[in-house]
Amino acid sequence: MPPQFSKFSGLVQTNLFGVLTTAIEIRKVRDTPILGMAAIVRLNRTILSGGTLAQERLVALEREITECRKCPRLVRYREEIARIKRRAYRDWTYWGRPVPAFGDPEAGLVIIGLAPAAHGANRTGRMFTGDRSGDFLYAQLHRAGFANQAQSKRPDDGLVLTGALISAAVRCAPPDNKPLPEEIRNCLPYLERELELLHPRAVLALGGIALNTYLDLLKKQGLIPSRAPYRFAHGASFLLPPGLPRLFAAYHPSQQNTQTGRLTPAMFARVLRNIQKFLKA
CA-to-CA distance for 201 and 210, rounded, in angstroms? Predict the structure, then answer.
């Protein structure tokens, strides 16, 4: 039976950051999407270290993200997809809202994707969950030690990330997987605030749009004069100005890339190994 959730309540197996929570008390806050960023009053047993102010602010930010309606085109599309559904998922109650970040709140690595898939994260409410791109990505993260399992089919499957957090350039599923420049700009402040709270040591951009989105953020902040020196290439690594994370780039694990052989597991594994070497140095 697929998980059922709504605007007011839902199935809770993990908190915002994918950390398994047992014996938890939940406060059902009005309009708070419980799945993926639930308002957690107290954890009787927790795997989080601390419950710091930054983590609390991150939870508040993700709640704000899930309530966003800045882009009329994306709102119409995500809600239409959630209403019509794909035949294979007709028994699901689609998430149909912006998708919050997922992973470790103390991550040294932030992975930036493009946007939720219409019948993937737009259905499940969790980044890269329920589609072929997620199958590829989480298998590689598991192999590299960032994930506790290789599968990511549904939001109650027990997946936990360690040392990594997954975000996106755009938080709503766009038509034809092509967000408009204005929609990317509308989402940019969310990514900016996440990075300010996380302070990662490394950023992995999945695809050219994700890379340029991050570079545009740095340019907007006055931290780089131009994105021209940082041209996208799979496996590229960029040394940014002092105080900024090391920037890595990889092809997005879309079906178009993985099924044509443009991106293979071995190619992606090499990128993750380079990131691990940097984080351990």
Answer: 17
Whole-prediction pTM: 0.85
**According to the 3-state scheme, what is the secondary structure of 149-198?**
CCCCCCCCCCCCECCEEEEECCCCCCHHHCCCHHHHHHHHHHHHHHHHHH
CA gap 151, 147 in Å, rounded: 9
Give whole-number Cα distances, 186 to 70, 115, 116, 170, 192, in Å.
7, 13, 16, 8, 11
Looking at residue 52, its pLDDT comes to 66
Q: How many CA atoms lie within 13 A of 107 on its CB side?
A: 33
Task: Write b or e for each residue in 59-70: b if 16 or more Cβ atoms lie within 10 A of its Cβ, otherwise e.
Answer: bebbbebbebeb
Beta bridge mates, 112: 167, 205
Q: What is d(CA 264, CA 269) in angstroms, rounded to the nearest whole number?
A: 9
Q: Return the CATH number of the domain spanning residue range 60-280.
A: 3.40.470.10
Task: Please state the domain extents for the chain.
Answer: 60-280
User: Could you give the dihedral angle defined by the CA atoms of residues 111, 112, 114 and 119, in that order, rounded to the nearest 10 degrees?
Assistant: 40
DSSP string, 115-154: ---TTTHHHHSSTT-SSHHHHHHHHHHHHHTSBS-S---S
Please, what is the average pLDDT of the chain? 85
Residue with tokens 């041209």: 231
Per the CB < 8 A criterion, the answer to whether 167 and 194 are in contact is yes
Total residues belonging to the chain: 281
Residue with tokens 């998980």: 3
175 CB neighbour count, 10 Å cutoff: 15
